[in-house]
Structures are given as structure tokens and as C-alpha cells.
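hiii, so i know i said id send this last week but things got crazy w the move. better late than never?? heres the sequnce for the chain we talked about at the cafe, plus the structure i predicted for it. fair warning i was half asleep when i ran it
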Amino acid sequence: MTSEYPFPQLNGAATGVGSMPGTDAREAARTSVGALEQLPFLPELPARGPGADMIGRSAGMLAELFAEVQPSGWRFADRPGRDTRRAHSWLGEDLDALEEFTQGHTGALKVQAVGPWTLAASVELKHGEKALADAGACRDIAGSLAEGLRRHVAEVRKRVPGAEVVLQLDEPSLPAVLSGSVKTASGFQRLRSVDRQVAEEALRELVRSLDLPVIVHCCAPGVPIPLLRRAGVAGVSLDFGLLTEREDEVIGEAVEAGTALLAGVVPSVDPEKAFDPAGVVGGVRTLWRRLGLGPELLGSRVLVTPTCGLAGASPAYARAALVGSAKGAQSLVDNPE
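okay and structure toks below
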């Protein structure tokens, strides 16, 4: 843990969570870079099908581990097959598009991958049970993911030489992993909970192995913020609408310790009526006042995002959500009170 804030260069910044609608990599990259000046991100386009989805894309990044699509979902396989090749192809297409629209870019750039615990809770072993049921498999996934991410980050840095890469680990299943509520492959039972110290240590080792700031995104209730802090993450990204006042203390401690808060406040699907960018961050100001934190810290310690990925939004609204996130973030700087 450190009290030094990891993103001093970002003030009034916004970013996206990861997924975008449609299948056009160039349009998605253009939108990300155009709408988010301070922290653009590498878009994911799950509408293209297996291998472009969150789990398949990250499974394709694994080193010396391979996965394929079965009727029940993703399952580890002995060798790379069509699904792995497809995941690599689409990731390459996305990187080509990002490289095209980030010519001359200097500064922060975010990439995303599914974290080790959500991967273990989502991918089956060859005999059919979730990898989460096997402690050895969980360790193998974490190690393989670390190596795959080092390669991925090196590729991004080669394509965008001025980028200060930030990695977001998507861990929506982490609260369920810790509480023992992940269903078995059959769906009739639940897998045993993972010891919190074991979960923390796996994340800590992964964070330590990467030479860059790591954010963890979790859009489920009960985000284990203290655990993530101890694991050394630079920031926590969450759906602000799922927070309760019970979490005030741990959020306040995290912010004061230098952890960035990525507040998901912009709707991630088309709302019934247009949202007010300055209005959606009102809850962040309210939280800040409850915590007794200095308003001058709002713009520098909080980054604004949609509540989750934008894959379910219309293309027009996805752009509006990113632009609105940027405007909301700027309003925290211009009008922190």
C-alpha cells in the first residue's frame, strides 16, 4: 500500500469500462480516443461473437493455456483451436484500430482484461467443473494471465510509444468467489468460498509482476475494497449506484491512502431521457461531503465512468455516455461544491 496517488497527471478525467456496441473496431477506437482525451481505452466488441466476449478475449491472452467454446460455455483445451485463433485475430484488429487513432498520443491509456478469479469462476476444466474448484488450476490461471498480460502490454507500448499504460482487471465475480456463491457447472450446487488471504495474495502477485498501475473493476455489490487495497491496486472501479453508506468508511480510507476511485455514475444503457452530465456526479459530491474530504480533491481523486460496459447501448448513446462522463468529470473540477 502507498499513500502516493498513482495518477497525478489526471485531473477531471473520465474513461470507459471496456465494452462498446457493434462490430466496427475503427469506429469504437475513434469514439474512445475522441471522447476521452485524458484516459482513452482499448474497446472490446463482444457483439462479434465468441472470442470477442470478455471471457474469450482474456482466455486468448493466456500463456500456454487454451480455451474453446462448448455448449456450456468456455472450457480449457489441450491445444489452441479456432476460438483461440479468433480471439487473437480480433484483438489484433482492435490494436490496429487503436494504433491508427492514437498517433502522437502521450499520456495514460487503459487496457482491460478479466482478472484471475473471474476467469476461474467462468471457465471449466476439461472434465467439466469450474476451474475455481481446483486450487492448482487457479494458481495456473493467475500465472498464465500474468505472462499473457506482460506480452499484451508490451505490444500496446510498441504500437503507442507515448502511452502510459494502465491495466484494468475486470473482477465482477470476485464478491461471489469470496462468499461461496459461485454455482457449480451443473448449476445445482455452489462452490466453496476461496479464502480471502488466498484471493488477495493471487492478486498481489499479479499486480507486482506488472510494471504499471492496475485498477480493478467490479460492477457487483460488496466490492472488497480493503482486500484490493492490500493487494496493491492503484484504483477501484465500481457501479456507484450499488454503494451504501455502510461502505463510506472503507471508501474514505482508500481515498485518503491514495487509491483512485473510478465512479460508475453514467447509465450504461440508453436511458429513457437524456441525462445531465453535471447532475449524474451529484452523488459523488454527496459522498465526499459525508466523508469530510476536501472538495479540491474531487477532480484529482475521482475518475468518472459509465456504470458498466456499453455493449448493450446504441452506438449513438455509447458515444454520448463517454462524452457525458468527460463532462461530468470536468464539472467536479469546475464546481466541486
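btw Residues 25-334 form a domain with the TIM Barrel fold (CATH 3.20.20.210). thought thatd interest u
miss u guys!!
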